[in-house]
Design a protein that fits this description.
Elements (H helix, E strand, L loop, with lengths): L4 E6 L8 E6 L2 E6 L9 E4 L4 E3 L2 E6 L18 H11 L5 H17 L2 E9 L6 H13 L4 E7 L10 H11 L3 E4 L7 H18 L2 E6 L9 H12 L5 E5 L2 H4 L2 H14 L2 E4 L1 H7 L15 H6 L4 E3 L16 H11 L5 H10 L2 H7 L14 E4 L4 H7 L3 E6 L2 E5 L5 E2 L8 E2 L6
Parallel strand pairs: 1-4, 6-7, 7-8, 8-9, 9-10, 10-11, 11-12, 12-13
Antiparallel strand pairs: 1-2, 2-3, 5-14, 14-15, 15-16, 17-18
Helix pairs in contact: 2-3, 5-6, 6-8, 11-12
The structure holds fe (ii) ion (FE2).
The site of fe (ii) ion has 5 residues, from loops.
Length: 427
């Protein structure tokens, strides 16, 4: 068992300063001022920087990540060309290559303080290569990342031959969550039917649901209403997530005023993917061009739990990204215009506590008794962390430091000015 770890003189996200945190046997034992030093403890001076629970990504595609350029790049940059491109790549995939790319991404994630990821995995391939690869990766990274897999029928569970059979085979192999993509089925009616079938499957197996839902600019794409209905009918409250929900951006306001309470009543979580949807949506518009991201502040105000996902990193849909959930949150903040102090803190929550609720993580947080998983960020508040995409000075898992980064600073050579800047500023 590792030695106890004592962090001295940290700031907490709620603004308390001069706080110590003691981790022992994989759990947070105490948080408060002037804690005693246990025998043989490793002691680290936080220098007043902020402790944070780890970042959590509620929506990712680890089977496609780091494949940018294979077999070619997405010329139009659209969702549909991305899906077609993924279809070209699938026959060329090998399990070894999938595992190597996923493990490489997990290294980035750890360095960025991202210690829990829900990833969709395409099940529309009879070989289930990606499923087997990511099940292997889930075990490999278990000591340092909680990886949750969603059985995702990319080509439509009713539209693609054998997709339902393969989805159930994936669940039999140990995939955690039931996925879907109702807006990609052949008709609205098929989309609604897919939601019913998949929710019933999840209820029968005692699993959670996370559907790509209404990732469209079509205001009449209303599968989220059906998802909330079946969640309510089957008693799946708190266990179902609607991902993307971009059609809500374009919906009639009167209809949305009916829809939001239905989502809230069913306890359906929402995930927006700001980097991807600001890029993919509105592609059929001239000007004005819609932003396309779902209605984040309105859903939060209605009492709906909203998380932000990274969705893609260097794949057929998105050429950029590095596993930085602060970049994701900052983009969400801008697109949703959540620039108030409360709004910015909500965006920080959207990549930490809100996503932890979506994944159903137990023992997440900075309170005594929680898992000793936390970060030391080079910032003194969540807002400063967002503004600076703050350095992850320490990444701690189960009470052990698993990644370190140096403080970000620059030296200056200017007459009459300080010789060093670190971009922080007390507000
Ligand atoms: Fe996605």
């Amino acid at each position: 068992m590792a030695a106890p770890l004592l962090i001295r003189n940290a700031t907490l996200p709620d603004g308390r300063t001069g706080i110590d945190l003691l981790a022992r046997d994989g759990r947070i034992e105490a948080v408060g001022p002037a804690l005693g030093t246990p025998e043989a403890a490793e002691v680290i001076d936080a220098g007043g920087w902020m402790l944070s629970p780890p970042f959590v990504d509620a929506h990712f595609h680890m089977d496609a990540t780091l494949s940018y350029g294979l077999p070619r790049v997405n010329a139009s940059g659209t969702l549909l060309e991305g899906i077609a491109l993924w279809g070209e790549l699938k026959p060329q995939l090998t399990q070894d290559a999938l595992v190597v790319r996923a493990l490489d991404y997990c290294d980035w994630a750890v360095a960025q303080g991202l210690l829990a990821i829900r990833t969709h995995v395409d099940v529309c391939d009879d070989r289930l290569l990606a499923v087997e690869a990511l099940l292997h990766v889930r075990e490999r990274v278990r000591p340092y990342i909680d990886l949750q897999l969603v059985a995702f029928p990319q080509d439509g569970v009713l539209r693609a031959p054998r997709a339902m059979v393969n989805l159930q085979r994936a669940l039999d192999l140990g995939v955690d969550v039931v996925g879907g993509i109702p807006h990609f089925e052949r008709t609205m009616a098929d989309g609604a039917e897919s939601v019913r079938l998949l929710c019933e499957l999840a209820a029968a197996r005692g699993l959670r649901v996370d559907m790509h839902c209404d990732e469209s600019d079509d205001p009449l794409s209303r599968h989220i209403e059906t998802l909330a209905f079946h969640t309510q009918r089957l008693g799946l409250h708190g266990r179902v997530t609607g991902s993307h929900l971009t059609s809500m951006h374009s919906m009639d306001n009167y209809y949305v005023s009916k829809l939001l309470p239905l989502i809230r009543e069913a306890g359906v979580h929402a995930v927006a993917n700001p980097l991807i949807n600001i890029t993919l949506q509105g592609r059929h518009d001239s000007y004005p061009r819609r932003r396309g991201m779902t209605r984040v502040p309105e859903m939060l105000a209605a009492g709906i739990n909203v998380g932000f996902g990274h969705d893609c990193v260097m794949d057929p849909w998105y050429s950029l990204g590095s596993g930085c959930m602060l970049e994701v949150a900052a983009m969400g903040l801008h697109v949703a215009q959540m620039t108030s102090q409360q709004g910015m803190r909500q965006c920080f929550d959207a990549v930490t506590v809100n996503n932890a609720r979506i994944l159903g993580l137990e023992g997440y947080g900075l309170e005594p008794g929680c898992h000793a998983d936390f970060l030391l960020l080079q910032a003194r508040s969540p807002v400063e962390a967002l503004r600076l995409r703050a350095q992850r000075l320490l990444v701690v898992r189960a009470g052990t430091v698993i990644a370190r980064s140096p403080e970000r600073t620059a030296t200056l050579n200017l007459p009459g000015r300080p010789d060093r800047v670190d971009f922080t500023r007390q507000t």
